From TrEMBL:
Organism: Klebsiella pneumoniae
Protein name as catalogued: Phosphoribulokinase
UniProt superkingdom: Bacteria
Lineage, top ranks: Bacteria, Pseudomonadati, Pseudomonadota, Gammaproteobacteria, Enterobacterales
Listed InterPro entries: P-loop_NTPase (IPR027417)
Length: 33
């Protein structure tokens, strides 16, 4: 992965796309727990 070539904006967007499902899963786990 050549992350250095990707602009900061796209990198932030990619991180958001990756993190959002993880956060949603954590929130669901807390609700069920």
């Amino acid at each position: 992965m050549n992350t250095t070539v990707v602009p900061g904006g796209k990198m932030g967007l990619a991180m958001e796309l990756i993190m959002t499902p993880l956060v949603e899963r954590l929130m669901e786990g807390r609700k069920i727990g």
